[in-house]
Automatic annotation (TrEMBL):
Organismal lineage: Eukaryota, Fungi, Dikarya, Ascomycota, Pezizomycotina
Gene Ontology biological process: cristae formation
Protein name per the record: MICOS complex subunit
GO cellular component, one term: mitochondrial crista junction
Domain of life: Eukaryota
Known function: Component of the MICOS complex, a large protein complex of the mitochondrial inner membrane that plays crucial roles in the maintenance of crista junctions, inner membrane architecture, and formation of contact sites to the outer membrane.
Organism expressing this protein natively: Lomentospora prolificans
Compositionally biased residues, Polar residues: 55-66
Keyword Isomerase: no
Keywords: Membrane, Mitochondrion, Mitochondrion inner membrane
């Protein structure tokens, strides 16, 4: 059995080999046509010798002589130019006038403001401080009543007395009722009087004479009181001696 199988395989092998070789022999082949060889078009240019190209010489333009004088004809001003100059002068004149007027207004406003500040500060400096306890309203009424009383008392007197009596009584009442305010007013009046030496000198003399008279009055008052006291003492001693003698 085995031998039979081997014989069959050996008989089939030549047939198979024959079929394979026949298949290779009958297989079609494609023929490729060769393209004709072409010469490059730039080969001729490579064979040519290089051309000698000379740079073109440019002719330099003639430079003008800097030392040659250039004649310039002066241009006369046109009417438009003259009109522009006149308009500029007019504008500058108006500008200067406006600046001058503005400065004058500013100076006037500054003076008014300084005057207002000075007046306000002066009035505020006359008021008494709070710690003094001095009140203006009732004190001012008392001073006014004293001045009116002086006017009433000097009603039938001469002109000088009628003019000085209210002032004297009002000033005296002010020194008594409003001493701090009156002192401030006196200092302010003295400060303004110092601007006029003649007035300040007269005020000083009058004040010294008043103080001297007041001092003399006090001295004479003390002398009078002492004289009265001595007289009363002597009279009492005399009366007492008479009484003792009468007993």
């Amino acid at each position: 059995m085995v031998a039979k199988v081997l014989l069959q395989r050996s008989a089939v092998a030549p047939v198979t080999a024959t079929l394979i070789l026949g298949g290779f022999a009958l297989q079609p082949r494609t023929a490729h046509a060769e393209a004709p060889s072409r010469k490059p078009i730039y080969d001729d240019l490579e064979d040519l010798p290089p051309a000698n190209i000379e740079p073109a010489t440019t002719s330099s333009p003639r430079t003008a002589n800097p030392q040659a004088p250039v004649e310039e004809t002066p241009r006369r001003p046109t009417p438009t130019d003259r009109l522009a100059v006149e308009i500029g002068k007019a504008r500058m004149f108006l500008y200067r006038q406006a600046v001058t007027a503005e400065d004058a207004v500013n100076r006037t406003v500054d003076r008014a403001f300084n005057l207002e500040q000075s007046f306000t500060n002066t009035i505020a400096s006359l008021a008494p401080p709070k710690e003094s306890g001095e009140k203006l309203m009732p004190g001012a009424v008392y001073v006014l009543v004293a001045a009116m009383a002086g006017s009433i008392l000097a009603r039938n007197r001469n002109v000088l007395l009628r003019a000085t009596a209210p002032l004297a009584l009002g000033t005296g009442a002010a020194w008594v009722v409003l001493p701090v305010t009156t002192n401030n007013v006196s200092n302010l009046a003295w400060k303004y009087e110092q601007r006029f030496p003649a007035v300040a000198s007269t005020h000083t003399k009058v004040r010294e004479s008043i103080e001297q008279g007041w001092h003399f009055a006090k001295v004479h008052k003390d002398i009078g009181l002492q004289y009265v006291d001595n007289t009363v003492s002597n009279a009492r001693e005399t009366v007492e001696s008479w009484v003792r003698k009468g007993k």
